[in-house]
């Protein structure tokens, strides 16, 4: 057959997203498209709205206005099943938020078993496969406190992936780590990206952003001021505010 290949529909589409906390407009008319397999990196100063955007996509915040569509489903429709949407958009936070009294395995199986009513044997076999994937199968019976920060964050990533999400959301997942532990987590994210995992991540690690991002998105005061390939946004930014932000990092 000849002709143009069909353009893929975006996996995630954000249109006209607005979110305020009181008088504080935190997201101001945000548009964002994420293609299947794409890695989008959010950069911007502290307070620019990166976490709030990720939390809106995971339905941890209620949006004031706008539409978020995931694989064709309007997830901002109040009638959607929020738990079901969350299982399709795994999220990992800066503080890994593992339950200290549960084993690593139980941390990973908790949501499938409690929220999604997956039988224990099935949940454990999925969880072990994910722990294997992040290189921590041998720690399944350990408690989070017995793990390094980097290992705990890798468990949190396994937990976010145990329901085979369509989209992985990662909010500054290396910011709380000692510098020597950052690499193992970034390496894992790089591998997941190579395997075709669609992800949106916020980070201050510009070297990493340059390496893994298909698209870099610069947020400034709740607006997407500039977005494009890393070579453009990081290498030759159009906007003075982007240049200013990047120059302050070095
Ligand atoms: P970033 O992740 O880029 O640092 P955030 O999304 O965390 O930015 O925050 C954007 C703005 O929203 C900040 O001014 C912050 O104080 C405010 N904010 C975030 N969460 C809340 C909340 N739950 N209640 C009130 N204000 C909030
Ligand atoms: Mg944040």
TrEMBL record:
Q: Per UniProt, which keywords does this protein have?
A: Amino-acid transport, ATP-binding, Cell membrane, Membrane, Nucleotide-binding, Transport
Transmembrane stretches in the record are: none
A UniProt-annotated Pfam family = ABC_tran
- Name where it mostly resides: membrane
Ranges for domain ABC transporter come to 12-246
A single GO cellular-component term from the record reads: plasma membrane
What subcellular locations does the record give? Cell membrane
> Per the similarity annotation, which family is this?
Belongs to the ABC transporter superfamily.
Q: What is this protein called?
A: Glutamine ABC transporter ATP-binding protein
């Amino acid at each position: 057959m000849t002709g143009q290949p069909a353009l893929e529909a975006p996996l995630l589409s954000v249109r006209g997203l607005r979110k305020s906390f009181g008088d504080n407009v935190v997201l101001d008319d945000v548009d964002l498209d994420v293609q299947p397999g794409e890695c989008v990196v959010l950069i911007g100063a502290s307070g620019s709205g990166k976490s709030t955007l990720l939390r809106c996509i995971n339905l941890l915040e209620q949006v004031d206005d706008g539409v978020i569509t995931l694989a064709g489903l309007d997830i901002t429709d109040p009638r959607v099943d929020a738990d079901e949407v969350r299982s399709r958009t795994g999220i990992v936070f800066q503080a890994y938020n593992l339950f200290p009294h549960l084993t690593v395995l139980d941390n990973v199986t908790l949501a499938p078993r409690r929220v999604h009513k997956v039988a224990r044997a099935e949940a454990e076999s999925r969880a072990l496969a994910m722990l294997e994937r992040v290189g921590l199968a041998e720690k399944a019976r350990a408690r989070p406190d017995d793990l390094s920060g980097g290992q705990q964050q890798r468990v949190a990533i396994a937990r976010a992936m145990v329901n085979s999400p369509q989209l992985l959301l990662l909010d500054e997942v290396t910011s709380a780590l000692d510098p020597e532990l950052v690499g193992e987590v970034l390496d894992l994210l790089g591998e997941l990206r190579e395997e075709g995992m669609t992800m949106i991540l916020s980070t201050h690690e510009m070297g990493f952003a340059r390496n893994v991002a298909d698209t870099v998105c610069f947020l400034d005061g709740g607006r997407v001021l500039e977005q494009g390939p890393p070579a453009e946004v990081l290498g030759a930014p159009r906007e003075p505010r982007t240049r200013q932000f990047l120059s302050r990092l070095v």
